[in-house]
Amino acid sequence: MFTSQKGVDAPLEMPFADVSEMSISRLMAFALAATPALAAEVPAALAPRSVWVVSLTEENDKFAPQNKDRYYTQGLKIAINRGDHTFFSLTQEINTPADTTNPNPSLDDMPYSGALYLGWGYGAILDRGGRRDCMFSVEAKLGVIGPSAGGATIQNKFHDLIGTPQSSGWGTQLPDELLINVDGEFRRRFDLDSSGRGYRDLIARGVVELGTVRTAVVLGAQLRWGINLDKSWGHSFIRHSNGYDPIDALKASASRPNFSYWAFVDSQVEVVVRNYATDGGNFRESRGVTRSPVVLQCAVGTTFQVYSCSATYFIAARTKEFETQDGVHFFGGLKGQFLF
Q1: What three-state secondary structure class fits 23?
Q2: Can you list the alpha helix ranges (DSSP code H) found in the chain?
Q3: Chain centre distance of CA 129
Q4: What is the DSSP letter of 253?
């Protein structure tokens, strides 16, 4: 490693060795070459940590102006997105008839039902020649429809908590059945701001649902206006979207602002082949009503995002999901996202 010049000190008659300039150069070169290898051996605890996005979505007709317990009355989803594009979710849905005081509801009204299922999926943003304007995801869902989904317990315990009467007809709910679904979703973002500042955009989406909970095709679009719209791919609804939320959207950096805001108007059309909430059991005899093959939904809402947290509120209106339904149904929702 070192080169030296050897000789003898005449007066002292002792050998000597001086480190040359070439020795220093070689030492520095060795140190630089060794740096990457040493960095590779840094303990995992000191390496950059992976990030997760946890989202919580609550949909309930109590959040809407009419404030009634009926039809799709409650939905709760917890989703976890990891840095490797995989995501997981846990969802519960609750449906009731319009009259929840009758222990034996009309056969022309939506039956009582609950669904509880786990989801696992993969999603990614497509890089098309530098344009990251498309997103896709696929999610597999496995769970149960019926009493084991806990719909009666959750709804009536919550009614006890807020001091309202319990729903009386849960004894007539759909029987237990296995829930299996596979859903695919695709989104495309269009920048509508000619100034190039990104104050307006349109997100078009298509969803295909196949399975025992729902078999349907959903086409929708979300028009947004605000600031820093590129930090989100728009709002997602529990029953008609996957649990994928790209992690990069919530990451803060020196080049990206730490505050975002936008309002949105959303509309979608659903072509429904099967829906457990209206059709009843897939494999066992149960109550059911005549399903409407086409359902429309419109929603308005707003989102605030500060640093690595966001919050959304919306109100939605849906046309009849079954022929004997009592008019348009309203429900609202809240969603929070947190990056860890």
Answers
A1: helix
A2: 21-40, 151-162, 276-279
A3: 26
A4: B
Cα of 153 vs its chain's centroid, Å: 26
Using DSSP's 3-state secondary structure scheme, residue 243 falls into coil
Alpha-carbon distance of 40 to 37, in angstroms, equals: 5
Answer yes or no: are the C-beta atoms of 76 and 63 closer than 8 Å: no
Token reading at 258: 């730490």
Secondary structure (DSSP) of 322-340: BTT--S-EEEEEEEEEEE-
The domain spans of the chain are 4-44, 48-339
340 residues of the chain, pLDDT tens digit each = 444 444 444 444 444 444 444 444 444 444 445 444 444 444 544 444 557 889 999 999 989 887 788 999 999 999 999 877 899 999 999 999 999 999 999 999 999 999 999 999 999 999 887 788 999 999 999 999 999 999 999 999 988 888 888 899 999 999 999 999 999 999 999 999 887 777 999 999 999 999 999 999 999 999 999 998 888 899 999 999 999 988 766 665 555 567 889 999 999 999 999 999 999 998 888 999 999 999 999 999 999 998 888 999 999 999 999 999 999 999 999 999 988 7
Phi/psi at 65 (nearest 5 deg)?
Answer: -55, -40
List phi, psi (to 5°) of 70: -165, 155
Between CA 291 and CA 279 the distance in angstroms is 7
d(CA 88, CA 82): 9
Q: What is the pTM of this model?
A: 0.82
**Domain at 48-339, CATH homologous superfamily:** Outer membrane protein (2.40.128.140)
